[in-house]
Amino acid sequence: MARSKTWTLLLGTSISAAALAAACGSSGNGSSGDTSSSGDAGGPSGNGGAGGELLDTTGPGAPSSLTISPQNAVLDVDGTPRSLQFTAALADGSAPGSVTWEVSDIVVGTIDTQGELTSKGLVAGVATVTARSGALTASTTVTVRVQIVDNPGNVSPEDQVDLQNGGSADPNLRFLYPYDKTVFPRGLRAPDLQLAGWSADATYVRLTVPGFTYEGFFGASNPTQVVLPQDVWRALTLSASGTDDVRVEVTTLAGGQVTGPVSETWRIAPGDFKGSIYYNTYRSAQTNGAAILRVRPNVDAQIFISGCTVCHSVSANGNVLVSGVDWTINNPLDSASFEIGTDGSVTQRHLADDGRKMSFGGLTPNGEWMVSNGVPQGSPVRGLEGPAPSRLYDTSTGEEVLAPSLTGAVTYALTPAFSPDGRLLSFAQYDGGANGKTIAVMDFDGSASPPAFSNLQTVATATRAIAGWPSFLPDATALVYHDGDAFDTATHGGGPRYAELRLVDVATRTVATLNQLNGRDAGGSSTLPYGEQEEGNLSYEPTVLPVAVGGYYWVVFTSRRAYGHTLAPGGTVAGSGNKWGGIVNGNEEPSLRKKLWIAAIDINHQGQADASHPAFYLGEQELLAGNMRGFMALDPCKPQGDLCESGADCCNGLFCRQTGEVNIDGEPITACVPPQSGECARIEETCETAADCCDAGALCINNHCAVPPPQ
C-alpha cells in the first residue's frame, strides 16, 4: 500500500475446495469470448505473452482441445500482493506448445508469460483468464476476495475486540457527513467520516461490499472523525459494482464505553470522474487574494489564473475559458479569453477593454464562439452595470460574429449556456418584462451562414425572484437551473439569499424538484444533519459534467450548508458558523461556508419526481476560503499518439488502445489511435448511435458510449 500501516493477516492465499473440485471435473475448453475492457466496467485486459514452445497444436493430428487448471479459482488476499499459478494442458494431458495468457481485467490481477496471476491484494472482483495455443483457446474465471484489517490508531487487541463486538445504542452518535444514500464516482478524494456525539478514544470503521471487507481501527479524535486512507477508498470503489450497496458501520470507544455501531449505505458509480472543475475564490489560501483554481481528481486545488480574474465560463470540451479581468466596484476593467492546453497550461487568446464582454459568457462546446451575458441597466447580476446587450463573439479575435437571428430575438440573455452538443442555447430571459424570472431555450445551427438561432421558447418560470445559471444535461433533454432570490449567493455585506436547484425537461417543460440534492425530503423539510430548515435552500450556480459517468449525470454547485462538524455551528474551523460573510475593516469578507458540492442525477430522469441523490463535498477544494461558481468541463482532447486513460481523452473519434508496451507496474500503456474498420467503441469512446458501442445495453450520450443507469 502507498502509506505505511500495520496489516493483520486474516486469510492467506487459498484456492477453495470447490474450485479445486471444479478443476478436476471441468475441461474449460472452447473458444473464449472478447476479454477486452469496456472502460467503466473495469480495467483493460492484460496479455502475459507467450510461453516456450513445447508441442505443435496446429498440424495434422493435433489435439482438439485445451484445458486450464485450476478452474474457477478463488484467491483470498489481505491487502498485500498474492499470486496464483495457472497451467494449460491438452486433452491428453500433455503440455501444449507456445501458450499466450490473458486476463480480462488488470485491475483485478495481472498475468505473466508463464501463467502466474498476481493480485495487488486490494481490489476484489471476477476476471476471465484465457490461454491460447495455436488455434486452441480455453478460459476460466478467477475470483479475488479482499479482507483487510488496518490499525493506524495502534488500538490495543483488547479494545479491537470490544469495538468489533459493538456496544450500546446512543442517538447522539450519528453521521454528520457523508449523507446516507450518497452516490460517489470513482477517482475523487475519499470522504472524511464526521460524526456527532462524544469525542472518541478509538473508532472502528467497517466497510463492506460483496467480496470486499475493510476493518480500520483509528485513534482518538474530538469531535469524532475518521480520515479514510485514499488507497483503501480507491480499492473499495473499484471493488463495488454499480448495484452494490456499500455498508458503512462506525463504532466508538470513549471512557471505556463502547457505543454503536451506527450505519448507513452508499453507492459507487462504476466510472472515474472525468475532466476538471474550475472555480473562483476571492480569498485563496495560496495567494491571499482572488483567483480561478483548477481541481483535478484527487489533486489539491491549484491556482489556474491568479488575480481578480473572475466571472468565468469554460467550454464543454475544456479548451477555452472566458472571464472578467481586473475587477472594480462595478464592472471588471477588462475581459479575456484563454486557451487551455492538453498539458494544463493556460495562455491568453484575446483581451477586451470591456470587462462585461466575456464575463459569464456562454461558450460553444469547442470554445470557438461565445454568446455574451447580457447586462441591462440595473442588471440583476451583482457587480455588472449596463447596458451591454448580448452578442455572438469569436473568442480568438473578440470580433462580433453577425447573428441577426439572435440579436433580432433577444436583447439580454442572462447567464447563457450552450448544450454539450452545441445545438441548443439556454439563458435567463430579461426582455419583455421577464426580468430574469424565466429560463428560455433556442435552437442553434453553427453550420449556417450566418449562424442561426431559432425557436425561442420559455421552459421554466421561477418560484422565487429569478431563474438563472441554466446548465444542460449531457443528452440535452433537460437542464438544471438555480431558482432563487437573486443570481448571487448573498447580498453585499453578508445578507441572506436563498435558492434551490431544479430540473426542467426541455420538450415537456415539466419541472422537477431536486430535493435530495438540495437536502430536503419530498415534503420540503430539511434532511441535513443540523436540521436547519434554511439549509435546504442554500444551493446555487449549477454546472453539469458534459458526459455521463458510471450510469449517472453529475452536477457541481455552490452551497452554504454545513460540512460535517468542520464547517458548522461550533465547527472545528473558527467562524464557520457564519453562513453569509460580512464586512471586515470596510471590505467584504466571504463566508468559509461557501463551498462546492457534487451530486448524481439519474440518466433516466424522465417522469421522476426527484432524480437526484444526496450531495457530497468536493474534498480537493481549499477549505479555508469561500469558493463558488464551479465549472465542470472535460480536459482538452489529445491527438493521435498521445497517451490516454480512456476514449474520453482522445480527439476526433480516436480510440484509446494498448500500444503493446507496459509501464513499471506491468500494466499496459494506452494511446489515442484511429479505430480499425468496423471496430466497436468502448465506454467513453466516440459513437453516433448505441449500436456503435461494444457493450450490450450501452447508451450513446453526447456522442460517447455510456454505462446505462443501474437497475
Automatic annotation (TrEMBL):
Residues 40-52 have a biased composition (Gly residues). It comes from the Bacteria. This is BIG2 domain-containing protein. Residues 26-64 are annotated as: Disordered. Keywords: Signal. Residues 62-143 form the BIG2 domain. InterPro entries: 6-blade_b-propeller_TolB-like, Big_2, Invasin/intimin_cell_adhesion. Residues 1-21 form the signal peptide.
